[in-house]
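Illustration 12: Cupin.
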Amino acid sequence: MNPNPLLGGLTPQQFLADYWHKEPLLIRGALQDVGPHVDYPWLASLAQQDDVESRLIECRGGDWRVEHGPFRAGRLRKLPATDWTLLVQGVNHHLPHIADILWRFDFVPYARLDDLMISYAPPGGTVGPHFDSYDVFLLQVGGSKRWQIAAQQDMTLVDGAPLKILKDFRVEEEYVLEHGDMLYLPPRYAHYGVALEPGMTYSIGFRAPSAQELASQFLVYLQDRVCLDGRYADPDLAWQAEPARIGEAMVDQVFDTLRRVSWGRDEVADFLGHYLTEPKAHVFYDGADEELDEDAFADAARERGVKLDLKTLILYRDGAFYCNGEKLEVEGAAVESWEILSNRRELAGEQVAVSMLKVLYDGWQLGYWHLR
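Figure caption equivalent — predicted structure in token form:
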């Protein structure tokens, strides 16, 4: 595989083998051309919307303050000249050229990609010394920011702070990032960024669900699919002197019943397809603006092709395809076309298989994808 400019000339294989989850990597001039400029007024307007996750973080005299959006326009106009940061999640859902930047990180599977967050900070703006539980790429866009990092083991946090601030951050390395520079950090690598000039950080984050989250969501998945016959019964119930005691016979019977719940790798794979593509609670889709019946849509799709909505994710495994938390009905003849659409996020008209047109029409009406 060819070297990737995003990785400072490393191939994806080299990066994954030597740095991913292991060591930080500074990449000078990783991405200079980031497309149309996203300015602070536009970012602030996004932070006022109900369907957008945003935060405002201020620190003055060692006192931290965190506010969550949506914000009133007046609140964001009254901010001081220094010492604050506005963070907006999922900007890739709202601007195509920002989504294009996120998908350039496809050397990591889509199942692990999360979103592209943009943070704006004037001089002194910071979210404090902290660590993340996931891998992250920090791309500087405009201005400059000083990053201090450390591989420390002491992750003790400041008591009572409204966000996770490291109590004893000890700098090991320091870099100043200018426009286009990027810093990769593995999980739990301590870092502290402070804006030197007004600018933005594009943070490309990755999904790393906790074991508890996976287990809880898998149990939710199972409860909709488990079907056990029978009912609790105790025809041989014996009298007991303590009526409040849970009897051993009841425990044994329920234990035997629950042991009948079984699952294997196929169920885990199916769960992951649903879970990993499920949109976040605040994400909504706009249905198609055009009024086309199924035949007219089929003609248009085979002529123009289709492209995924910015908020849509399709993942697949062994011929099973999952889109936005749902399993698609895919016929064998259309598997290759669906794989192309999943990986490239668009499909040319001549690649549209006849057997996929019904599913495409249904998804188009829901706003999951659009005609090109």
